[in-house]
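Changelog note: in this version the structure field was regenerated for every chain. One regenerated record is shown below for reference.
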Amino acid sequence: MNIDASHGCPTCKKLFKTKPGLLQHVAQSHPPTTVDPVTNQERPLFKFQCSVDYCRKVFATKARLTTHESEHAAGESKSQAAPFSKPKF
């Protein structure tokens, strides 16, 4: 199988077909870190992580996290409001 994946992650070496795909992967899988000046330990730069199980997005502010999570809730209510119905024959 020949995959044209010219964009490689510098951290885990995973390959991507597009640069936007690579950038999304890096943001979600390898969030930036900083060193806490008090404890001298590495910690995530973005403190606020989405609480939805399948979503790994992180945010720098509580407000952005809240906005993001409300989008999950809106998507769930839309899917529940219009359930799939079987065609009647």
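Spot check on this record: The chain has two domains: 1-30, 36-72. The longest strand covers residues 33-35.
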